[in-house]
Amino acid sequence: MEPVAVAIDAMGGDHAPAEVVKGVMEFMTRNPDPRIYLVGKKREIRRELRRLPAGGMNERLSVINANDQISMREQLLTYWRKRERTSIQRALDLVRRGDAQAMVSAGNTGAVMALAKANLGMLEGIGRPALATLIPTVKGKTMLMDVGANVDSRPRHLVEFALMGKAFMQTVHGIENPRIALMSIGEEEGKGNELIKRTYAILKSMDINFIGNVEGRDAYLGESDLIITDGFTGNITLKVAEGVVDVVMSMIRSEMRSSLQSRLGVFLLKRSLRRLRRRLDYAEIGGALLLGINGIVVIGHGRSNAKAVGSALELSVRMVRERVLERISAEISGVRNVLEELSYA
Predict the structure, then answer these.
(1) Tell me, what CATH number does 88's domain have?
(2) Strand ranges, E, within the chain
(3) 337 lies in a domain?
(4) Do 80 and 56 share a structural domain?
């Protein structure tokens, strides 16, 4: 098997470059084959490497200098002018030239999406990229997409999201015929806005395992393998869930300190609580996939720690090895005539 090379934006995220560098080294310790390009301000990266055992030395690691970075809240008009000097751009350059097969960043999501689309282009037949992420459910995990790439999608775009997500779930997660649902305000076919009702009719007519609408409260029950929505709704769904998890964990910690009986109960449930925390931890997933781009791009959470960085790297390597881009292209090619008819929708 050919070694996989991944370019990672070392300056992206709230805890960069320290947590990014630490996560990279921990990942390389666990995975003896992949090659990593750490892209960013070389002096800062080298300083963090020296703080690690053996000075962070690894023959499979290369540091690529980028003199500038894009802040988390920076807008298009400000970062576009300096893009060529930034760590995001330099990492994408490595993918475009073929030196790396995937790119990972926990930085500015909008900047990663815009620069990835401009530099790598779109897969043939795909109109817009989508951000897809796995969410925890009572039965395992479900993929939710789009979670923020598009706020004004059309029916054709949601159909594309369904086909891309289907290919991913089949390839990476081995689900032969994934159950595909549409996020709406009711389970009935006629519920939802015009976008959802028109998309419902199209998905229902296609040769896929479309199971109909799901409501927000049902998204985490695990009755579907893939939930399709527009980026506005998907992002709110994801952020509300993250907030609820943070509040629940905070309440549990508060209860742990409230009395002797509570502390005893927590002690008895320690293993179960640890498993629960692991299931709800975003760091276990690593990040969202930018599907539709002609390249493997993983966008991590802005708060990514070393564990999340490692998970994102593992996801990117698996995407390359499972040839997800080729599978998505084949899926789209099989229904290109349908998508062309929807070009007006």
Answers:
(1) 3.40.718.10
(2) 5-9, 35-40, 61-65, 102-105, 130-137, 140-145, 180-183, 210-214, 226-228, 288-291, 296-299
(3) no
(4) yes
Could you tell me the residue range of the domain that residue 200 belongs to?
127-284
Residue 273: φ, ψ to 5°:
-65, -35
Q: Looking at the DSSP assignment, which residues form a beta bridge with residue 155?
A: none
Taking the model in full, what pTM does it have? Answer: 0.87
**Alpha-carbon distance 103 to 190, whole Å?**
41
- Assess whether 252 and 191 both reside in one domain: yes
**Claim to verify: residue 38 and residue 95 sit in the same structural domain:** yes
Sequence length of the chain is: 345
Tens of pLDDT, residue by residue, the chain (345 residues): 678 999 999 999 999 999 999 999 999 999 989 999 999 999 999 999 999 887 666 889 999 999 999 998 888 888 888 989 999 999 999 999 999 999 999 999 999 999 999 999 999 888 899 999 988 888 888 999 999 888 889 999 999 999 999 999 998 888 989 999 999 998 888 898 999 999 999 999 998 999 999 998 888 888 999 999 999 999 888 888 777 777 776 777 776 666 766 666 666 655 655 665 655 555 566 789 999 999 999 999 888 899 999 999 999 999 999 999 998 888 887 766 666 666 545
Distance CA 238, CA 233 (A): 9
DSSP strand pairing (35-40 vs 130-137): unpaired
Which of 151, 146, 126, 195 lies closest to 203 in space, CA to CA?
Answer: 195
Residues 207 and 255 in one domain: yes
Assess whether 198 and 298 both reside in one domain.
no
Query: What's the number of domains the chain is made of?
Result: 2
One domain, residues 243 and 201: yes
In terms of domains, do 270 and 131 share one?
yes
